[in-house]
């Protein structure tokens, strides 16, 4: 009987033909991680098999490849048979295989939807594969500093290449931690403005009262204490690129100011009668649904259209699980290097590795609500927890890295429930105590704290707002600042630590209150 397992077209975002494929998530020889094998025989209704000796996995970025070839993988076969739109998995006697975290005893049917999402297969106890769908191999594109070879990442690279040299504004949409800032910098680097300024400003961090002076600057004498004048972000980015991060958080009056400057290409510093032409390429980013914000009156439709000269959607990590192994090995190598223990990568090939394949398999099954940033945090944790070569265990992961309990969150998926993204109500959000501790240990710097907690700055601000014991610089009075200034001898960092507010917020508050 001829199979119906045919090349799939999966909606608008997946316009290319895809084939059931296997990608190496983990292999003791870490150079093999990321290699893939397209199981084209399945498309013709024929079966396919995986063993130590077949199929050939093309090495990442190479035109050649080889079979898994590791002694922990049996010479006997794991068989893949087409079944309707899905695949039946069956093992020859003696082959040790787990599928989605459960040992494969009897034949198991995987639906097309499961394969689309990605199925984690552990072969023996050392090799982890992902069964998923891949498009045909793409012509190599510039990498733009982005790690990953999934179809979704290749589409992202193609988008960056298409728009970089054009003078149009770009709107980057994507969940927290998907790499929006990295992509903004990649566009700038690939543009004719590569050697000019790249100015990054978080619209969530600018208080409405100071927005005009922050964005457009002020002239000397514009207000008491403004003896020197100040170039705003637009002037600082003149000739280069201005990255408006978290643009959906811009208050309404700031939205109006942005619209004006984007339309006129002119700015007027506070207290100045001169309007200055500015030549700035704007790249904006948002993790919120701006179309819904426009419908509900929170965001100006006209500003959205101005910002979205070209839109790029950044894929969440759970939709490109085949990149988990590649990103993890890249980040692990970086973390081990900074610990001076890079040689430990080679120990993964040894008999008793510090990073068991079962941990990697669990990470490949995980949903990654904090995306690549969360994965970077996990890699750092793994590198440090295994210092000196001590093996790491799933049960040991601290709460906060993955939410309440690592093991609960990494249980094999029971059904095909929809993937979730992190919201402030989610249990993977840090508790009040963790939030306070992280702010203190990072000197109340919001970017560093958000990075440590694996959340976006927008989420961090929301959590700070909801935390009764944490105030923001906006709540600090002029008197309190003066007293603290006298005690701390003008040292901004020390003042921020004493007042328990962010140094940048404090600086803005001092300017606002004219306490210089
Ligand atoms: N494809 C990638 N390759 C390598 N590193 C990546 C990739 N994507 C993201 N990262 C890293 O993940 C972290 C988060 O990326 P980035 O800050 O650009 O995300 P973001 O979308 O701006 O997040 P947020 O919305 O929370 O601000 C950074 O350390 C970045 O270098
Ligand atoms: Mg960002």
Could you describe the 3D structure shown?
- The protein is an alpha+beta fold and 516 residues long.
- It folds into four domains: 213 residues, Sandwich (Tumour Suppressor Smad4); 163 residues, 3-Layer(aba) Sandwich (Rossmann fold); 35 residues; 40 residues.
- Helices cover 33% and strands 16% of the residues.
- It has 19 helices and 21 strands.
- A six-stranded antiparallel beta sheet has the order 2-1-12-11-8-9. A five-stranded parallel beta sheet has the order 14-17-20-13-21.
- β6 and β7 form a beta hairpin.
- The radius of gyration is 26 Å and the shape is elongated.
- 39% of the residues are buried.
- The structure holds adenosine-5'-triphosphate (ATP) and magnesium ion.
Residues in helix, %: 25-40%
Task: Quickly name the level 1 CATH class of the largest domain.
Answer: Mainly Beta
State the end-to-end CA separation: 82 Å
- How many extended strands? 21
Query: How many domain modules?
Result: 4
Instruction: Please give the largest β-sheet.
Output: 6 strands, antiparallel
Strand content is: 15-25%
Class from helix and strand fractions: alpha+beta
Radius of gyration: 26 Å
Distinct bound molecules: adenosine-5'-triphosphate, magnesium ion
Oligomerization: single chain
The strands making up the biggest β-sheet line up spatially as 2-1-12-11-8-9
CATH topology title of the largest domain = Tumour Suppressor Smad4
Q: What is the number of helices?
A: 19
| Poorly predicted parts | 8-16, 404-408, 413-427
Average pLDDT level:
87
Global outline: elongated
Second rung of CATH, namely the architecture of the largest domain:
Sandwich
